[in-house]
Amino acid sequence: MIADEIRRLKEERNAVVLAHNYQVPAVQDVADFVGDSLELAIKAKNTDADVIVLCGVDFMAETAQILNPKKTVLLPAREATCPLARALTPDMIREARSSHPDAAVVVYVNSTAECKAEADITCTSANAVDVVRSLGEDVVFVGPDANLASYVRGQVPEKTVLPLPADGHCPVHLRFTLADVEAGRAQGDAVVCHPECSPEVQAASDLVASTGGMVRQAHLHPNWTVLTEEAMTYRLGRVFPNAAFHAVEGTECADMKMTTVEDVLVALKAGKHRVAVDETVAAGARRAIERMIALKR
What we know:
This protein is α/β, with parallel strands linked by helices. Helices cover 43% and strands 16% of the residues. It has 14 helices and twelve strands. The strands form three sheets. A four-stranded parallel sheet has the order 2-1-3-4, with helices on both faces. It has a four-stranded parallel sheet with strand order 6-5-7-8, with helices on both faces. Strands 10-9-11-12 form a four-stranded parallel sheet, with helices on both faces. Helix 6 (113-118) links the parallel strand 5 and strand 6. Helix 1 (2-13) runs parallel beside helix 13 (261-270) and helix 3 (37-46) packs parallel to helix 4. The longest helix has 18 residues, at 279-296.
């Protein structure tokens, strides 16, 4: 009945529900679109809806609002945030520019609006390599995830890629170890990991991919151990029902799991919780985000 009421309210409000791949299954099931950060950003920019309900964490809702300043963007779970995003501050970016005035700054979408406003361009784990390759600068700061920066460095050896900060990491992806890779192989799985995993885990895995990349490449093997947030296996199972996807126990992101299907219903009924980004900040962030999106075309 909740799903039926959500469908009714979406039509009544001219609303769209966008959900990240890490959302709980019930939320994925009521969403109009499920995807990774890049896919959600593009969907948010191109939607004709008046109301965007963003089921994810705060930086994703901020991105949707920045790209749609005249639309209403709602974050159903107001407290849902990202520890990784909090690892980077605007002052860190300004200090990096001061020490390397000729360097470019690439900021992961897993960052605050204020940090995006200080960047030359944003990236996601799906397009970070292409973003860095597109730049004319020889020295590029990539933050806030140091493991993503390490992955990009390996793929773009012609550039000097520096992490910003040096110790920025996703707490969930730090939990994965070589033992998880070995356990997957022992049961006959191919192993895919997210580029936020450690360089050692990346090197040992069969495939390193963003969540969107996992969806695009899962057809390559019938059985996978998936080294990212555990809800990704639900998303993959929906797309490939004849394949097997195994999560590692204890790899749940508490913030991504804050949003419930009841929260989505309340958001549509009562307009909770509306996202606002200062326009001065939004203008700079919009430039960096749109420069990233333009590379997709």
